[in-house]
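Notes from hallway chat w/ T.B., transcribed later so I don't forget. T.B. wanted the structure written out for a chain they're using in a teaching module, and asked if we could keep both sequence and structure tokens in one place. Agreed to drop them here.
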Amino acid sequence: MRRGILEARRAGRTLVAVRAWEPPEGDALYRRWPEPSWARLWAGEAQRRLDRAFELAAGGPPADLRIVRRVVRGPAGPVLCAIASSPDDLLVIGMARPRGLAARLHRRPVHRHIPARAACGVLVVAGPRLLPREARILRRGGLVERQARASGLMP
């Protein structure tokens, strides 16, 4: 998000922040047994994650930029390629590092899909390298924060 903000400022352009989401069990299973209330819940969670990304990156949405926020249901690669379809666009994506063997086997590598298919320029920003203990501490911190929010101890 920080790099996207920087590039939008540098070029004097609109920042389009996109969060693509899919049902956790996949669309095939959801189509078989659809539950609209769950879909609304997942879409709301995607919106909260997008808002949280602005908070973590810049302390909130920058006032000096025109920002368009979009939460779109679908696989991240095709969704992002469809939104950034003009040759004048710049698509900035983060390269998440999958955690564990199961995540590596089932995750679609978005950072490979987009550069191969995008009609615009693509900037892939790698996340920070963490030592195994640091990653565990950060994951634990996120778990503690979620538990505190669920119990009403945090807003």
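Follow-up for T.B.: The chain has seven helices and four strands. Might be a good example for the class.
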